[in-house]
Amino acid sequence: MSNDVVFLTAVQPPMSKDAFAAAFQAMLTHVRIESNSEIKEIRAFGDWAYLLESPLGQRYTAQGGQARRPRRVHPLNFQPDGAWKLARDANMLAVETSASD
Prior knowledge:
By secondary structure, the chain is mainly beta. Helix content is 11%, strand content 50%.
């Protein structure tokens, strides 16, 4: 992650790296996460790129709640040290309706 990464969700204002880390730690107290990610596409344009992750890559289930799957886009930025790092994370959760979604 870049130092100025921004996390975007459907229900929260944009979050910094530190704010996301705190929210994620709090979420882990009541949400189970299953993760098996599949990258569908990567495109690079100069110093920027994006990565599309499989919508079936992760499942979040709150205690006694419905499973939700994120729809994710990850813009990356090429850093001066030669590394590609996460610059933004757009994570939109959708209620799981079937295994084929």
